[in-house]
Write the structure tokens for this entry.
Amino acid sequence: MQILVWVFEVLFISSLVGVFPLSLAETTSPGVCSEADRAALLAFKAKIVKDTTGILSSWIGRDCCGGDWEGVQCNPAGRVATLALQGPVKDSSMYMKGTLSSSLGSLPFLQVLVISGMKLITGPIPDSFSKLTRLTQLVLEDNSLQGNIPSGLGLLSHLQTLSLAGNHLKGPVPPSLGNLRNLGMINLGRNSLSGPIPASLKNLHLLQSFDLSFNSLSGFIPEFLGQFRNITFIDLSNNQLSAHLPISMFNLVSLSYLSLSHNLLTGTIPEQVGNLKSLTSLSLSSNKFIGHIPASISRLQNLWSLNLSRNGFSDPLPDVSNRGIPSLLSIDLSFNNLSLGTVPKWITDRQLSDVNLAGCKLRGSLPRFTRPDSLSSIDLSNNFLTGSISTFFTKMTSLQKVKLSNNLLKFDLSELKVPDGISSIDLHSNQVCGSLSSILNNRTSSFLEVIDVSNNLISGTIPEFSEGLNLKELNIGSNKIAGQIPSSISNLIELERLDVSRNLITGTIPMSLGRLANLHWLDLSINRFTGRIPTSLLGIKFMRHASFRANRLCGEIPQGRPYNIFPASAYAHNLCLCGKPMPPCRGKKQETSQ
């Protein structure tokens, strides 16, 4: 869903008049750099104590307008009009460390200010930014800025885009932002803002994109949202908003994306939801909605993603005809008060990519889908499904993730024939039997990243692991698996979580386990391991959880972090483990933890 949000916002920004490429085009043939502007830029550079992006290393020489100063563009009079410094958000090694200099407020001809994706720029947004009265774009995304949003930003009357998302800003949304009557996009998401959505924002009649998601905002969703006739994108998810949905919101005929998930919203979905004729994505998950899902939802001709999970919606589901919701690709009705019994035909007969019906009281055999080749993700967990799985995956050539956990499925692992491209299989808490060698062998796909078959009836031993596997999570806990962990476990070089707890595994903990550098969760508890905990585990730098409880281990616990600071319960009920956090080993003086 976050990818979907990103796509919507990129499409919106690229549609704005005056976005970065246009602004750059308007600043061709610059004059010689103003000495005052050059000094302001160098003062900003001086506040950045580390720059691994290399951008600021180009800021040398007298002329900041000559094209050599990366990210700087000037107007024909030699005044800085654009400062655009954008770092790659997903590359943690590329960043700027420091603070924003108030000197940037001394660039009176600045129209575009973008400092985004720099990760380690801290401190407040300078009050001096309120002097940038020609500014049309202010984007300070994905840094580590702190403090309140300056109320002075409300003086930037020409502003069309304001994005301060992905920082550590706190306090209220300033009511002064309601003065920005030219604003087309506002994104204050992924901060720690609190308080209500200010009533003054009703003045933003040109607003097309409104994102306050992932904050701690409270109060109700304001009625004035229904006045934003041009709005296409609203994301207020992951806040503490309460009360009913305002009816006015369902007059927004241009609205394409609406996410109100993870709030405290109550009441029902009104029939007027069918008026949102442009809607492509609707997410109301994780609220307190009740009542029936309205039949008018079938009139949403462009809707392709519908997520109503984790509410209190009750039977019956609307009777959707073959022509209703014709664009639907993804549906999530999980964890409501629905007692479906079987999957409705209007779901099984469609060409869907994602079907999520967890906790919908489904019974009987696994459903058959008319277009199995289109499915990429299925979640039918927490139901009462029974029987075998042998033909379920037939023709599911596009399937990537399947979750069938917490059902009553009864089959042998040898019957499991999964598509080659699958990345995640979750079958935990069923009645699955057989041997792990049926799914972990030299034919196991390199695409497979997650296997969870815990809490079943699986027996036999753990097979050898061949090279080339890309498993990140392997959970085989709470079964009847015996034998030893093979030393070839070290071939799972991508492994992050390993849980073999509550089995009958014997032998020693293999030294090769220490080669799994990405491991951060390890549970070997309640087995029959003997010998020592190998010191090779000290080579795993990111271990956050480990449990060796209830085995037959003896000897000194590896005396280095984090093993010597894990709680003693992680080592309890063994033969003779000693050393921090357990009592000292005999004849050895306990040392201060490293």
